[in-house]
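Hi W.,

Here's what went into the run:
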Amino acid sequence: MNTAIVETINVTREVAWLPWAVSYFFLIGLSYGAFLLSLPGIVLRRPGWEGISRLALLGALVCGLTAPVALLADLHQPGRFWHFYAHFTPTSWMSWGAFFIPLYLGGLLLYAWLAFRPLLAAHGNEGGRLAGLARVLAYGGLESRPALLGAAAVALLGAVLVALYTGVEVMVVRARPLWDTPLLPVQFVLTALAGAVGLALLFNRFGAAAPNGTAVVRMARVLAAIELAVLLAGALWLALGLSGLGPTHAEALDQVAHSPAWRLTAAWAAGATALTLLLAWLRPGSGLLIGLLALHSAWMMRWTVFIGGQEVPKTGAGFYSYELPLGPEGLLGIAGTAGLWIFILVLATTLLPLDRLAPAGRSGA
Amino acid sequence: MKFDSSQTPAAGCDPSRRAFLRGLPVLTAAAAVPVPALAAAETRHWGMLVDVRRCIGCQACTVACMQENAVPEGSFRTVVSTYSVEVTDAPQPAGTYVLPRLCNHCDDPPCVPVCPVGATFKRADGAVLVDAERCVGCAYCVQACPYDARFINHDTNKADKCTFCAHRLDAGLLPACVETCVGGARIFGDLNDPEGELRRRLDEAAGEVKVLKPEQGTSPQVFYIGLDQRFAGKVEGQGSLWKPQASHG
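Here's what came out:
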């Protein structure tokens, strides 16, 4: 007996994690990704990486300072954020996250300050904009390698824990098969790294008077490798789902595979990643384009996971339909977060102009 | 259902004739066997049986719940999901299937461990509740619930859900949805009371009793008789023709 079921009355459960959450996961991902990108040049002193790492560190700082604001805004009771610290709940990854974020940001701020102190002092001494403030912040401008390494270690621990919690927090939600896949944290990390390289490429393109071609090629190579890993992770996800070897992947695939909208989304995501990989590999000089593509993929992945994931009813038939509201819970929230990001970027680059950070040795585009 | 002696029927809470009449046997029973009844009060475990065969889909429970608990417009703590089911390979008119839904007050509730501030908890009597004074409105519990039973209340900006009408239980009253059910489809009571109607009905229908999404391993304490397997999990079919939706105010 075959039946056709039409749901005539049911409830739409609205999206409870709003675009604020997408903004947070996007920015905190870019931040820890960019922080990792700052290590080769600043901590490991790899030749050719100095400028890239300085730009990446600026990105880590700007994104890292913006992200918690978006996270707070996603709480429906933001004034109660202190409850996270008053009522620690070890069974909740979100509760752990409330401690990981300040650990990471504390380490990052200290690391960035120690790394940028000499540059701040130089800016102050040369009488640039806000030179007085730069001199105060530089606090003598001394370079302390042991302190820098210590701060980098704290920030690295924080970054790893933030990457872990942001992935696992979502992965443990068994009620949503699309989230409950072991590959999700890996995919978050990989797309965050790709987005971070994209951000550094953007800074390099717009920041320097003449963008550094060698640095662009170097970053393009890194981006190509990351995008290859993104594609492999996606292919593995699909293979586990299609073969049935991964029951959670199969369940997740089953929920959305028949939806034309989801098929288009999957094709778009895979196509954009493949295009980024091809361009980064074959035309490594196209820094701006591949940078924007990588950032787009990082945002889109999170939007699809969070907003798209919440459009799948847990018990009801079909899908819930989401339309981006124009107010603070939607478009205005995204624009506001972007505005804060730009404000912090302007403030930071007033003290630390991009051309002072950008890779040395200009050579074409 | 049978009430134990610790649940005096709320002096000053509900002066209705119904409450008064219900209270009489309680007082009588309390006078007759006070000790066993008090002992039962300490070990009671609330549960609900939904006899789908008796539900007529009138949504009286839905409305009663909204009125009792001041649920904002567009949000629901309980609802009767209604489906049109057509047999495609036989010439017969489509039928209607109704399924009352509410929080399942799971014995292993996935909403509890994820709460980052310990605001969601399971009471000793089995009811899963939210401490509104502590809730930060992060909605992690909303995501973790496999039954879509939770939501953010935009009047309070906190997590909201069915409480089994805990305030009524504490006053010796039945949940509003049970009280108002026209067909007697919702049977509420103490699962640990062997003499109670709930336990008796569950035992009688032992082979037919099911729960929603058993594969989730949540041990729901809302049981169903007449639950068609096609509706026990995510329903495969065409999406709702009418879905009221809450909105940020």
